[in-house]
Amino acid sequence: MKSRLWAALAAGVTASLLIGCATTPTTTKTADSTPSKPADNKPLPTGLDPDTASGFPSTYKPLPSRPTAIVGGTVLTGDGKQIDNGVVVLVDGKVAAVGGPDTPLPAGVQIIDAKGRWVTPGVIDAHSHLGVYPSPSVSSRSDGNELTDPTTPYVWAENSVWPADPGFDRARAGGVTTLQILPGSGNLIGGRSVTLRNVPSITMQGMKFPGAPYGVKMACGENPKRVYGSRGRGPSTAMGNVYGYKKAWIDAADYRRKWDDYRAKVAKGDKADAPKRDLGLDTLADVLRGKILIQNHCYRADEMATMIDISKEFGFHISMFHHASEAYKIGDLLKENDICIATWADWAGFKMESYDGIEANAALTWKSGACVVIHSDDPIITQHLNQEAGIAMAAGRRIGLDIKDADAIAWITLNPAKAMGIADQTGSLTVGKRADVVIWSADPFSIYAVADQVYIDGGLAFDRKDKRFQPKSDFELGQPSEGAFIP
Amino acid sequence: MRKFLFAAAAALLIAGPAAAETVAIVNARIETVGKAGSIPSGTLVIKDGRIAAVGADVKVPEGARIVDAQGGVVTPGLISPSTNLTVTEVDLIKETRDDGSGTQLSAGFDISYGINPASALIPLARQGGVTRVVVTPTLTGGGDGEDQEEGGSADAGLLQGGGGGGKGDPRLFAGQAAIVSLDASDTDPLVKARVAVALDLGQAGAANAGGSRGASLVLVRAALQDARDFNNNRAAYDRGATRDFGLSRVDLEALVPVVQGRIPLLIRVHRASDIRQALKLASDEKIKIIIEGAEEGWLVAADLAAAGVPVIIDTEADLPDQFETLGSRLDNAARLQAAGVLVVIAGSRDFNNLRQARFNAGMSVPYGMTWQQALAAVTLNPAKAWGMADRVGSLEVGKEADVVIWSGDPLDTQSWPTAVFIGGTQQPMTSRAQQLRDRYAKPDNGYPVQYR
User: Fold this and answer.
1) Which one of A116, A263, B157, B224 is at 20 to 30 Å from B373 when CA atoms are compared?
2) Angle at the Cα of B190 (from B186 to B195), degrees rounded to 5?
């Protein structure tokens, strides 16, 4: 996944500019738009150049931290290793060392005793609607599905996020340090996702993951055709869905060509008239350029195969199929095409397209070598992704698959990071990565495990034993439980 | 085809009238959830469909079939306290749903007529150790409003079309519940029909009553009074000589056993003040109630205990996801238990996640329930709440042999049932989901999987 993303980057954009697209929209120069020689063309007026307005800048600031060594715990690194009696050192918000009991500790480091406990990377929920469908669930805060047109690539989940959603606090207490917030699945193309650090913040910008690429939500199957079919318009069938996707990608390819032609002319110093900017097509064109990742809600094996063919026809890559209840039927196809799947442990059968869902879905797909993610799509399940992964792992062990704890932890750490394009920054306990770490009271796959301490960028973001590190949303002050959901 | 396979599998596994067979489960840690407590290593004997002996030093009777639990854990069968299993196949396919009263009936709706023992979901529940369920109706038949749908509020919002109540006139009561056995060998698994009348109070009750809480409770109280008057003046009613009643004869008839205190009202309610109203209703009307939901139950735990009202709760519910659940806490179960309330732990109302109940029980342990209390909350306590503790819910001599053998800790993620007995009959351990799994787990042999 990462290699594909980087290949795409090499094709025209630099890594720093990709990061810039999320964090520093005021950086207007790009490789494409920088003229190679003086030209008459003036810079486009403010707001008319797609490259100058790629989202609001992140104002995220890590929590204060001090050098910390977590010692004596069972460490699952996220990238396949288990270290008993391990040491994890966090310095300046980064993982500074990971190893066995002999790992040298920097002078003056704070030591946390994790004896009898387990240490993992922070949990990443690749499918969340926190903030866009917050608690309390009331119609005036129902901001996740822009159901006014089946194709709405022009909306951005980040503009719907309510940062005070008490669900963020619950998720953090469940070890979740990073979330991908997606638009809903009512539309064929539902809009951009946003990746958030799970820290309390007054603004969305204060949570926005610096440098994380955007995703685009697409949806197969029953939801779009039910929503629009019931309104007497298209799509109302599966074939209507596919028409809708294709039409959107044709428009995107055409739009991209116009801009690329324009940029080429500008680069040569030729006189050129810029195309009119289109917010939806900006997003889709950036998918075609490999800068934005496709996050595709899709249950059925045959529909996933159809989406893969569409992606090949139009030259983009699907980063991950979400829900993917029938992934176990097409593990090889998914592996061949380097597509992750995100699914639940055992939620199935509630609609026809999930009727063939089975508990061993994740395990069988893992066996075929494809990238597996356990996701939540739910404000309760997001608090228990460790146990969801445990249930999914047990379904595999039950049929004799040798799934190790060190493998299954990747389903909620490194693999979602890959599918979200942030594996270079988080998802495993690797030296140099962000120090997103959870200390669990027990084997994290056990039903009895709870997150004792959660570190985000090395800062203590939650401590089960210390009320000072149990932040509460403004919304919950003065309410019956005062935001205290644990003893 | 599937039915044929199932029948064949069942015949292979349980040849003949298996319930008459004598079985001795040996080499087991037995969690009786009864007076004998936990037996670290013991034997349990099943004879004539009942538990004939249980203990550390029990002798295996002559001729008994021996089942070696291989050091696993033996528990009573799990009881789902409120579900749509057996009356719903696919949530979003209306034609497969028989759990809602529809537009014609209120309390009179009888869910027991829709029970389908051939549901493909029953084997799935059984494989999760569930042996008996209480099938409870909802007013809309559209789920309980807490369905996760795609697991997420995104789609829940979609599916409910932006919220709003049901269609048609207020009908108040959701209808009558039934107790159903999951015994595969039984073509008529209904244990008991009309065991309760279900009712929403709080937000949903207000919506059902076409107004606010004040409307809902006034109408409910009036309906109970009508049922009394109807029952006391049947002859006059038949002559048309009574005042008009708000509900139809069928609905009033269904409420008679409620006002007589013979069956409970199952009240779905969440906010502390609404729970107090439910308790007041029960005390004023001298009726029995069971409360389901009770996210803010911990705030009124002492009142619930004093009234002897059982509560059915979801231990994962910790979100202020409605204005009536702002006080949701993860230690709700433990606080209720400590106050002396009979705590029943539910999984999801939906069939497909009934297995969640045992995990929900496990999750209550870090929040203050003891392991034994948690196990009781999915076995003996639901049996007590639903008036069947004399027959099932614990492993005690004389009780019906609903027994599960687990590979390990029944409340933890890495264990599963290895054998399930219902009424002494060993159950087939297969399901549609398992057949799908096994079909695709096999290596490719060049032919399409449909040949497997």
Assistant:
1) A116
2) 160
